């Protein structure tokens, strides 16, 4: 799973680099309007690959927990599988919403095609909310078992400290909420989309 996560992370970086050729990160007054369809298609691609990457990173951690603690703790085993189910369902739903936010789908990138679209800012905030909750649950899940290990207290705290670095993702997600909300209020969207991506 971690190999898939790494491959998707590389793919995400490549998609973001390609997106800069279609106006991501430039000022709207420098933006060529003919690139709008490609720009918006890249947005769907970026969100989809990002969600898949985060999913595989998190389930890799869960499978590690199952391997290490699953034999000694049914609570960790069942909780990890429940969290795996939650992550799978939420990721499928969020990817579905990212791709099919508009009806018809092509109306998302064709301004002359009339359709109904969901609010992409709201979808982004829901996605971040799910990510924060699952990050915290993944951090909490092994703590009890780590504390039961036959190690000096100092080493237990060190192991918990290493796991706590994963909580930095929560801080980044809070910053992302701010940048996504600000994006909805900005005139220079193409420029601010680039800055929102920095936190992704």
Q: Concise description?
A:
The protein has 200 residues and is mainly α. 72% of the residues lie in helices and 2% in strands.
Gyration radius from CA atoms, angstroms = 20 Å
Q: Biggest β-sheet, characterized?
A: 2 strands, antiparallel
Helix content: over 70%
Strand order in the sheet with the most strands = 1-2
SS-derived structural category: mainly alpha
Mean of the pLDDT scores? 84
Overall morphology? elongated
Contiguous helical run count: 8
**Separation of the first and last Cα atoms:** 21 Å
Classify the oligomer: single chain
**How many beta strands in the DSSP annotation?**
2
Q: What fraction strand?
A: under 5%
Low-confidence stretches: none
Any overview of this molecule?
The protein is mostly helical and 200 residues long. It is built from eight helices and two strands. Strands 1-2 form a two-stranded antiparallel sheet. α1 (2-19) runs antiparallel to α2, α4 (120-140) packs antiparallel against α7 and α7 (168-185) packs antiparallel against α8 (189-198). The chain starts with a helix and ends with a helix.
Task: List the defining traits of the structure above.
about 200 residues; mainly alpha; two-stranded antiparallel sheet; about 0% strand
Topology:
Elements: H1 2-19, H2 36-69, H3 74-99, E1 102-103, E2 116-117, H4 120-140, H5 143-148, H6 153-164, H7 168-185, H8 189-198
Antiparallel strand pairs: 1-2
Helix pairs in contact: 1-2, 2-3, 3-4, 4-7, 7-8
């Amino acid at each position: 799973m971690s190999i898939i996560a790494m491959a998707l992370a590389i793919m995400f970086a490549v998609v973001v680099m390609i997106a800069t050729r279609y106006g991501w990160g430039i000022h709207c007054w420098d933006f060529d309007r003919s690139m709008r369809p490609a720009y918006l298609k890249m947005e769907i691609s970026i969100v989809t690959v990002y969600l898949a990457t985060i999913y595989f990173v998190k389930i890799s951690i869960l499978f590690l927990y199952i391997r290490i603690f699953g034999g000694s703790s049914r609570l960790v085993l069942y909780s990890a599988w429940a969290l795996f189910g939650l992550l799978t369902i939420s990721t499928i739903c969020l990817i579905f919403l990212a791709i099919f936010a508009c009806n018809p789908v092509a109306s998302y990138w064709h301004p002359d095609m009339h359709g109904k679209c969901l609010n992409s800012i709201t979808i982004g905030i829901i996605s971040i909310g799910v990510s924060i909750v699952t990050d915290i649950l993944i951090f909490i899940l092994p703590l009890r078992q780590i504390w039961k290990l036959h190690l000096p207290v100092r080493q237990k705290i060190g192991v918990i400290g290493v796991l706590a670095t994963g909580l930095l993702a929560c801080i980044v997600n809070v910053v992302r909420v701010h940048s996504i909300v600000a994006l909805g209020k900005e005139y220079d969207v193409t420029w601010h989309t680039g800055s929102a991506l920095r936190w992704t």
